[in-house]
Structures are given as structure tokens and as C-alpha cells.
Amino acid sequence: EVQVAESGGGLVQPGGSLKLSCLMSGAVSQNHAIGWVRQAPGKEREGGLCINNAYEVKYYTDSMKGRFIISRDNAKNEVYLWLTDLKPEDTAVYYCATDLRRLCWATPDYSTWGQGTQVTVSS
After folding, report:
1. Radius of gyration of the chain (CA)
2. Closest CA to 63 of 96, 39, 86
3. Would you call 38 exposed, middle or buried from its count of C-beta atoms within 10 A (0-12, 13-18, 19+)?
4. Where are the alpha helices (DSSP H) in 1-123?
5. pLDDT tens profile 18-52
6. How many CB atoms lie under 10 A from the CB of residue 122?
7. Residue 53: strand, helix, or coil
8. How many Å apart are CA 81 and CA 83, to the nearest integer?
9. Which of 11, 34, 59, 77 has the most CB atoms around it within 10 Å of its CB?
10. Strand, helix or coil at 26?
11. What per-residue confidence (pLDDT) applies to 87?
């Protein structure tokens, strides 16, 4: 079974930081690109960012550049999303996802999704 599962969401004050984790299992492995996608209430899903099997990163959402960092630890089968300088507009459900391919494509089209983890930025 192909699986990814997120953890690490929560409530954080503006300007704060948070680390999200995505655990890969089943057929999902270090050979696959993993993306982080978010969706805020009443808004369209944002592509977020992606890390491929060669540790190269692609950003799909400009507002995340310079504040959000993606990394992976293949020994632990985990991909991380480091959220810094958080703003209220970052409040959303964050999903990790994969299309079971090695690269991060120009337009993400993921086939496998986690259940999501809520991030709320509020004072």
C-alpha cells in the first residue's frame, strides 16, 4: 500500500515557527519526489513546494520562498517542511503528497495524499 502521513501541525503565534513531518511507507520511498500542498478554508489549493529524489527543491507558491524549507531524511523515510516567520494567511491544512515519480514537475499532479495536518497562525 502506498502511504504518506503528516504530523506536526498546531497553533502558533505570528512570527513563529513550526516543523511538519511526512512519513513515507509502503511503496513510497526515497526514490520519489514529495510535495507539500496547502489549502485554506474557502480558498483554492496552493501547490506549495516539492523535493525530488536528488534533493532538488521546486517552489510553486511564491509566498513560501525564503520562509518555508523542505528537506528529506531518507534513512528515516521522512520529508520535512520547516515553516518560519509564519503569518495568519499561512493558516491552512497542509498535505504531503506524491505521484510516485522521481522529479518535481512544472505542474504538480499528485496521486497519493496524506490526511493533512492543520496549521493555525493566530495571536
Report:
1. 13
2. 86
3. buried
4. none
5. 999 999 988 878 889 999 999 999 999 999 999 99
6. 10
7. coil
8. 6
9. 34
10. strand
11. 96
Alpha carbon distance 112, 88 (integer Å): 28
Q: How far apart are CA 82 and CA 103, in angstroms?
A: 21
Dig out the grid coordinates for 88 from the structure.
495568519
pLDDT tens digit sequence for 70-101 = 999 999 999 999 999 999 999 999 999 999 89
65: buried, middle or exposed (CB in 10 Å: 19+, 13-18, 0-12)? exposed
Computed over every residue of the chain, the mean pLDDT equals 94
Q: Is 15 exposed, middle or buried (0-12, 13-18, 19+ CB in 10 A)?
A: exposed
CB 77 within 8 A of CB 92: no
Task: Give the pairing type, strands 92-98 and 68-73.
Answer: unpaired
> Is the CB of residue 116 less than 8 Å from the CB of residue 95?
yes
**Predicted pLDDT at 110:** 93
Query: Hey, CA dihedral for 114, 117, 36, 81, is it positive or negative?
Result: negative
Cell 512519513 identifies what position?
Answer: 23
